[in-house]
Design brief:
four-stranded antiparallel β-sheet; three-stranded antiparallel β-sheet; 7 helices
């Protein structure tokens, strides 16, 4: 019973913390993002901490000095991260629940079992990731019922994929025309111009329209 109460208390504190962070966005000064913006070093436990530029500092965690070992490598080699919260209480979170981290003014997001640099940040952000894809080697029995495959049942290969991050909501999308259309639809002029393109140009000009959207509707972060 005591253990259950402690767990519920921790969960309640986490919910209140997230609510407080969201409330802060309505009460503090926000500035338009550009390449001169300074992201604080540390670990983002959730998307809200990224949007508020309020990570858990590396010095509050059990991670080694980032100058001696990459935070991404250190996080991936650990089963869980321990850190001291704002009340000085030691907390533990599994690595796969972490949103990402910031180091040397660069943002890294955790996705598909690894940390990936987000080199292009805007209302619609873009990053490239390498992921493992498993393929089935077995022959379709309806095609050749007399053939018995005796090799490995599957194999794994690395593939490079492009991803989009809606930096206002935290949702992620594959880099595909239908997702670009969805993300820019609240700008009627850009949306119509994109719809009027040929199918070939829909794919060819995806990044161009993302840039246009971000220039017209810039993202904002808390002032330093």
């Amino acid at each position: 019973m005591r253990k259950t109460v402690i767990i519920l208390a921790i969960l309640s504190a986490h919910v209140l913390s997230c609510s407080f962070v969201l409330a802060q966005r309505d009460s503090i000064k926000m500035v338009e993002y550009d390449l001169s913006y300074n992201f604080q070093d540390g670990v983002y436990l959730n998307f809200q901490q990224f949007r508020m530029n309020a990570p858990v500092s590396f010095s509050s965690t059990d991670l080694p000095d980032p100058a001696s070992k990459s935070p991404g490598d250190a996080l991936l080699s650990a089963r869980k991260l321990s850190f001291f919260d704002g009340y000085g209480i030691k907390q533990f979170v599994p690595i796969d629940s972490i949103w990402g981290y910031a180091y040397n003014n660069k943002i890294y997001i955790y996705w598909a079992g690894n940390f990936h640099l987000i080199p292009y940040i805007g209302n619609i952000s873009h990053f490239v990731a390498k992921v493992q894809v498993r393929y089935d080697n077995r022959t379709d029995p309806f095609y050749d019922p007399y053939y018995v495959y005796t090799g490995p049942s599957s194999y794994v290969t690395n593939q490079t994929v492009q991803m989009l991050l809606d930096t206002e909501t935290g949702k992620m999308y594959n880099f595909e025309p239908e997702h670009v259309r969805h993300l820019i639809k609240d700008n009627p002029d850009l949306y119509k111009a994109y719809l009027d393109l040929s199918k070939r140009k829909h794919r060819k000009l995806m990044f161009y329209y993302i840039r246009q959207y971000n220039e017209k509707q810039p993202i904002h972060f808390p002032a330093d």
